[in-house]
Amino acid sequence: MQLKYEDLLGKQFKYNGRGPDEYDCYGLVKELYRRLGINLPEYASTEDCSLIDLMINKNQQLFNRVYKPEPFCIVTFIVKPPYTSHIGVVTENCRQFFHIYDKASVVVSNLGHPLWSRRISGFYCYKKGY
Q: N or C: which end of the chain has fewer CB within 10 A?
């Protein structure tokens, strides 16, 4: 499966951003999954750091937790402890991920970079058939 994403690189961050020019981290995940043919449910974004914890826990029927990165799985991070507060999508090579965060634009970063590797809280694959 091929994911077209080049047009998203450099798009700007905005809380509650759902595109096409501005995204928050969940809005970017929604857009990338849409391009994979998967429509994720909407969640009102907020600065409440428990949002992603809530989304993952509430939708266990949509996601399986996996213990290593897989192509196009969701990766979550604890940026502001104790909550999981950041989310991205693993690239096809399983060594990088797509994401966006406050005061930045859409980028591809390395999962192994110390800034991110020590903050990973989980990997989640979308269950087929939903």
A: N
